[in-house]
Specification:
The complex is a heterodimer. By secondary structure, chain A is mostly beta strands. Chain A has a domain of about 140 residues: Oxidoreductase, molybdopterin-binding domain (Sulfite Oxidase, Chain A, domain 2, Alpha-Beta Complex). Chain A is built from four helices and eleven strands, in the order E-E-E-H-E-E-H-E-E-H-E-E-E-E-H. The longest helix of chain A has 8 residues. Chain B is built from four helices and eleven strands, in the order βββββαββαβαββαβ. Classes of the chains: A mainly beta, B alpha/beta. The interface between A and B is large, with 39 and 41 residues.
């Protein structure tokens, strides 16, 4: 159904997934209060069966081989922002450096705020999935998930958990915070996997 | 599971300009699924070349009403909001999604307290109308730059079971008797902390963070639900 008088400001762009619009700014959206965290106190736990298999302090993490990515980011609230530059450590690199063998195919990413989101292991160890501490060559600001957040650029941005502090391995795919409120279990923006059902 | 949102045909039945930034638009939506106060819908505009622009808006009508109302705010370079404010008229056709959202919805298990800045009042228009119809008690705190931005001042004043605390931070009308300061540590001094409350906060990221700081310093743990505009 055509909307009378509407011509659209945006040209169609192949880099913009269906139902998204191009945004030049970086909107702040969070479900919970922004925590005030000191990066020196940050650490990351890897958990399975209620057991902490590894705990990586900031001092160790910051010396791991770093990677910079330039990716388009797509938020389920319909904005897409091109060419966002993030620096951090690939999850695959982290596992290699720790000589860590993932025990299952499913993970739940956890944040210090209690936020959770499920990410399959196959997506977590992709080339461009990083645990990031820098955006556009600056420390990530608290409202955007600093000091450390996950970046899973090929999925909707709610999967890129802010304030990450744990990766919990699970025996089956389990919904996290937004997934429990009806968001899609996987969240592929190119398939518009916004909501379940 | 397709994950795709379902859109319904909708027609504008009423448009009310509130001020140079805000308007209220009523839609009649085909096959409307009754919403829960606090939910939002997406409005879809379609150009002749097939280009579509879709944006989410809080529903500002009570589920008891026949039409579905949205509070639209003009924003810099706002593609959908500015079209709706500037160009749309009664009788125009759009598509409106089924209601969305299961988190920022009225729980109504304790006394609801609504805390809004600017057009963050939208979901609370829905919630307050719904509660007022049922003679349920609630508290409403709203900050606006000017009087017209309070949007439902008269309605809120008329709800006899509820307490209304409007605040105008810039252009106060003569003889204004409401508040005129920003949200601060004294804002909630009138609450009896022996009561059970559920807080709902809606506004810019800055406002929500401020409000959360203040509520968390009240010395008691409350249920708090937040909704932020995608501020920058």
């Amino acid at each position: 159904m055509v909307t009378r008088g509407f011509f659209g400001k945006n040209e169609k762009n192949e880099r913009v997934p269906p139902g998204q619009y191009l945004e030049n700014r970086f909107p702040v959206l969070s479900a919970e209060p922004t925590p005030k965290l000191d990066i020196k106190d940050w650490d990351l736990s890897i958990i399975y069966n209620n057991e902490t298999l590894a705990k990586i302090s900031w001092d160790v993490f910051k010396n791991l081989p770093s990677t910079s990515i330039n990716k388009d980011i797509h938020c389920v609230t319909r904005w897409t922002k091109f060419d966002m530059n993030w620096t951090g450590v690939k999850v695959s690199t982290l596992f290699e450096e720790l000589d860590f063998k993932p025990p299952t195919e499913w993970t739940m990413i956890g944040a210090s705020t209690g936020y959770t989101t499920n990410v399959p292991l196959k997506d977590l160890v992709l080339e461009n999935t990083i645990i990031s501490y820098s955006y556009e060559d600056e420390p990530i600001s608290p409202e955007h998930g600093g000091p450390v957040r996950l970046i899973v650029p090929h999925l909707y941005f709610w999967k890129s958990a802010k304030w990450i502090d744990k990766i919990t391995f699970l025996d089956e795919d389990t919904p996290g915070f937004w997934e429990n409120y009806g968001y899609h279990m996987y969240g592929d923006p190119w398939k518009e996997q916004r909501y379940s059902g | 599971m397709t994950g795709l949102q379902h859109f319904n045909n909708a027609i504008i039945t009423k448009k009310k300009i509130i001020n140079s930034d805000l308007c209220l638009i009523n839609f009649e939506v085909e096959n409307w699924h009754k919403h829960v106060p606090g939910q939002y819908s997406e409005i879809c505009l379609t150009a002749e070349n097939g280009y579509q622009a879709i944006r989410p808006y809080s529903i500002a009508s009570s589920p008891d009403e026949k039409s579905v109302t949205f509070l639209i705010e003009r924003i810099n370079n706002g593609e959908v909001s500015n079209f709706l404010y500037d160009i749309s008229t009664e009788g125009d056709n759009f598509q409106v999604s089924n209601p969305i959202g299961k988190r920022f919805i009225l729980q109504n298990k304790k006394i609801p307290i609504f805390v809004a800045s600017g057009s963050g009042i939208a979901p609370f228009i829905s919630m307050s109308k719904y509660l007022a119809n049922k003679n349920k008690r609630f508290y409403m705190y709203h900050w606006s730059k000017n009087f017209s931005g309070l949007v439902i001042y008269e309605e809120n004043k008329s709800y006899i079971n509820s307490l209304y605390f409007p605040n105008i931070t810039r252009n106060k009308p003569p003889n204004w008797t409401g508040g005129d300061s920003r949200i601060n540590s004294k804002t909630f001094n009138n609450l009896d902390l022996n009561n059970q409350y559920e807080f709902y906060v809606c506004g810019s990221d800055f406002f929500v963070e401020n409000a959360l700081d203040i509520i968390s310093n009240l010395g008691k743990k409350f249920d708090i639900y937040t909704e932020r505009f995608g501020s920058f």
